[in-house]
């Protein structure tokens, strides 16, 4: 009797072939598969099998029970949240990351070379975003963990200003966190880091339908702190309306006041890929730390994001994230060990999907993806605002359309969106903007085309009646 595991091992070729065939069937159908799931139709299995089924029979059960509830979230008409797709090269890289199953810690020496691949990929990304090599970077599971990583080092910096070593001795009072429109994940990071969710001092917005901070209000608040340390969380792309804080003006304030400047550019940072939009992030190279998501606009599979941190903070960085309090900081930066730079200890070779995609499509390929998505958002915005039934809640500044039904009660906006999502043709998410019920459509998928806009718009006009 051979065990299911031994049988599988002997049959690996057929198993991977099956995985390829099923993957292809999914990817080829992304344009027609529904964007909504139907989990009620699919009862859960309650019992762990006593004897294993083997992979092929597990596959059968997966197809029968689970596959039909998997939605086309990486397809061309999934416009809810900010959900990226997957480039062919990134799928290849992700597959290989699994097959090679490296535990990505340290640069070459006695270990494997996965950290070298990571550093090379970070170098490519710095070049994609026109950022200087004074930034040290690494891969984490998403922008939430990137914000967490950056803000943990910001906390260590602020503690140092107060004569405290927070990573070793614990939290101290007296640190102010400033932001106009922090992403929920940054607020969550503050909860995890001991600042507390409620302890963000809000900076005023600019006047006139803006979510960007009024930098004069920021300056007034910095002045009032009288030298007490502050951490500024700024936005390169807010979620509702993709507004950008004025990075040039913030960089100017850095010369006068002492504060840690973090930029959350999870998806808006990709404005840097386009000569026509890179002015939106001008000045961000002066920031202390940056967050950029890769599973959004880079179109690599989950889970993938990077942090970028100025190397002048590397000592604080390692003090914060090294596993043990090791006074030896000597050559940790020449022989990078990611265990001292990210929250995780063991990680997969998370850089490989991005490496493949950046190699395969280059700077030009990403400029095209970004500019195409921006053009689609603008076209969709123009279709909606020209229709009479819909109105934009904010101008289309980059890749997201924030809109509502004209003269509609919140309940009607909600029921319209439910009906629209129920078609399974498109998925959008609700929002509230300036007190009004709204809907967001975000364009970050390389597969989306003008034909998708026409299909969705036709459906919307039919539903609105
Ligand atoms: C999506 C997003 C995040 C959180 O990213 P995850 O990858 O979901 O962890 C943080 N900030 C901004 C601006 C985002 O758009």
Automatic annotation (TrEMBL):
Keywords: Decarboxylase, Lyase, Pyridoxal phosphate. The keyword Coiled coil does not apply. The keyword Metal-binding does not apply. SUPFAM superfamilies: PLP-dependent transferases. GO terms for biological process: amino acid metabolic process; carboxylic acid metabolic process. GO terms for molecular function: carboxy-lyase activity; pyridoxal phosphate binding. It holds the Pfam family Pyridoxal_deC. It comes from the Bacteria. The modification N6-(pyridoxal phosphate)lysine is found at residue 296. InterPro entries: Aromatic_deC, PyrdxlP-dep_de-COase, PyrdxlP-dep_Trfase, PyrdxlP-dep_Trfase_major, PyrdxlP-dep_Trfase_small. Its cofactor is pyridoxal 5'-phosphate. Belongs to the group II decarboxylase family. This is Glutamate or tyrosine decarboxylase. It comes from Spirosoma fluviale.
């Amino acid at each position: 009797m051979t065990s299911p595991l031994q049988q599988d091992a002997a049959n690996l070729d057929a198993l991977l072939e099956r995985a390829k065939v099923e993957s292809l069937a999914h990817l080829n159908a992304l344009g027609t598969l529904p964007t909504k799931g139907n989990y009620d139709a699919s009862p859960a299995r309650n019992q762990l099998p006593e004897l294993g089924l083997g992979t092929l029979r597990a596959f059968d059960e997966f197809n029968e029970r689970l596959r039909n509830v998997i939605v086309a979230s990486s397809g061309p008409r999934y416009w809810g949240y900010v959900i990226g797709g997957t480039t062919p090269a990134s799928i290849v890289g992700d597959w290989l990351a699994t097959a090679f199953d490296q535990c990505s810690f340290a640069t070459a020496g006695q270990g494997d070379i996965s950290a070298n691949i990571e550093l090379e990929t970070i170098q490519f990304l710095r070049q994609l975003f026109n950022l200087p090599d004074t930034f040290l970077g690494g891969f984490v599971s998403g922008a939430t963990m990137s914000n967490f990583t950056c803000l943990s080092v910001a906390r260590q910096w602020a503690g140092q200003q107060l004569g405290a070593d927070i990573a070793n001795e614990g939290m101290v009072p007296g640190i102010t966190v400033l932001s106009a429109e922090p992403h929920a994940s940054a607020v969550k990071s503050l909860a995890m880091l001991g600042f507390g969710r409620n302890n963000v001092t809000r900076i005023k917005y600019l006047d006139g339908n803006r979510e960007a901070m009024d930098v004069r209000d920021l300056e007034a608040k910095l002045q009032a702190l009288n030298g007490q340390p502050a951490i500024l969380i700024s936005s390169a792309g807010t979620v509702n309306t993709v507004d950008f804080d004025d990075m040039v003006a913030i960089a100017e304030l850095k010369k006068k006041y002492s504060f840690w400047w973090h930029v959350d550019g999870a998806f808006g940072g990709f404005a840097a890929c386009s000569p026509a939009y890179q002015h939106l992030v001008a000045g961000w190279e002066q920031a202390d730390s940056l967050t950029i998501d890769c599973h959004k606009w880079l179109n690599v599979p989950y889970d993938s994001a990077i942090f970028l941190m100025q190397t002048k903070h590397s000592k604080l960085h390692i003090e914060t994230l090294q596993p043990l309090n090791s006074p030896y900081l000597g050559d940790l930066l020449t022989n990078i060990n990611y265990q001292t730079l990210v929250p995780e200890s063991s990680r997969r070779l998370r850089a490989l999907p991005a490496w493949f995609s950046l190699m395969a499509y280059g700077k030009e390929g990403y400029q095209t993806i970004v500019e195409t998505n921006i053009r689609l958002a603008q076209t969709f915005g123009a279709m909606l605002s020209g229709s009479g039934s819909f109105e934009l809640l904010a101008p289309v500044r980059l890749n997201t359309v924030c809109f509502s039904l004209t003269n509609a009660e919140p309940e009607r906006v909600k029921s319209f969106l439910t009906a629209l999502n129920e078609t399974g043709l498109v998925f959008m998410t609700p929002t509230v903007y300036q007190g009004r019920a709204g809907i967001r459509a975000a364009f970050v998928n390389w597969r989306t085309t003008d034909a998708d806009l026409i299909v969705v718009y036709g459906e919307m006009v039919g539903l609105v009646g």
